[in-house]
Structures are given as structure tokens and as C-alpha cells.
């Protein structure tokens, strides 16, 4: 796998596969919940990176697209409802996924 231009971060080899997901908290208030979610997903055997809630949404999307196949958006609504938004970069689609089903969805 070869990344064009700046598509791969400097600290990752172009031959290294992308992570399963990038968890993007949509505010500093969601950072703790994002860390808990990432810990759960890692325990399920997934390769996960966590963003910083102080990032603007655009910066989170850019970082996620470089690092991972999918981005899990974690905002106040997602935390309250337990339904998470997952952006698949290769398909260009967003899907709502119940938190209980997230690990299985990210494996697929």
C-alpha cells in the first residue's frame, strides 16, 4: 500500500496498514468518554487512535483520514443516546451504530 503525497503521517510507514478507527470527541467534555470507548475497542482487539476534543471537526477528519479506515464521532448526542456515528472513508458513508455493536461493525 502506498500513500500519495501527504496522505500518510510521517511517523507511519506507507506499507503499514491503517488503524481500524479513529475516535473523534467533539469537544473537550467528551475526551474522557472517548478514552473509555477507545479502551473498550482496544480490549476487543481493534487498533484505535483517539483525537483531542479541542480539535476542530475539520482537523479531526483530516487526522482520521490519514490514520484510520473509519472515524467514530463522539459528541454529546452520541454519548446520551448510545448510538455512534461512524464515517467510512473508503465508502464515503456515515452510519449510525449502537455502541454495543460498534466493535463488530468496525471489524467488518
Write a brief structural summary.
This protein has 108 residues and is of the alpha/beta class. It has helices at 31-43, 57-67, 76-81, 102-107, and strands at 21-25, 48-50, 70-74, 83-88, 93-98. The protein has a single domain (21-107), classed as Anticodon-binding domain (Rossmann fold, 3-Layer(aba) Sandwich).
What can you see in these coordinates?
It is built from 4 helices and 5 strands; from the N terminus they run βαβαβαββα. It is α/β, with parallel strands linked by helices. The protein has one domain: Anticodon-binding domain (Rossmann fold, 3-Layer(aba) Sandwich). It has a 5-stranded mixed sheet, sandwiched between helices. Strand 1 (21-25), helix 1 and strand 2 form a beta-alpha-beta unit. It is globular, with a radius of gyration of 13 Å.
Amino acid at each position: 500500500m502506498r500513500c500519495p503525497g501527504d496522505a500518510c503521517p510521517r511517523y507511519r510507514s506507507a506499507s503499514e496498514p491503517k488503524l481500524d478507527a479513529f475516535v473523534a470527541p467533539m469537544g473537550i467534555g467528551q475526551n474522557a468518554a472517548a478514552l473509555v470507548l477507545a479502551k473498550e475497542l482496544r480490549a476487543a482487539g481493534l487498533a484505535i487512535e483517539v483525537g483531542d476534543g479541542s480539535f476542530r471537526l475539520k482537523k479531526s477528519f483530516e487526522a482520521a483520514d490519514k490514520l484510520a479506515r473509519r472515524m467514530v464521532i463522539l459528541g454529546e448526542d452520541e454519548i446520551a443516546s448510545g448510538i455512534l456515528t461512524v464515517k467510512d472513508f473508503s465508502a464515503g458513508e456515515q452510519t449510525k451504530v449502537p455502541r454495543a455493536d460498534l466493535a463488530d461493525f468496525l471489524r467488518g
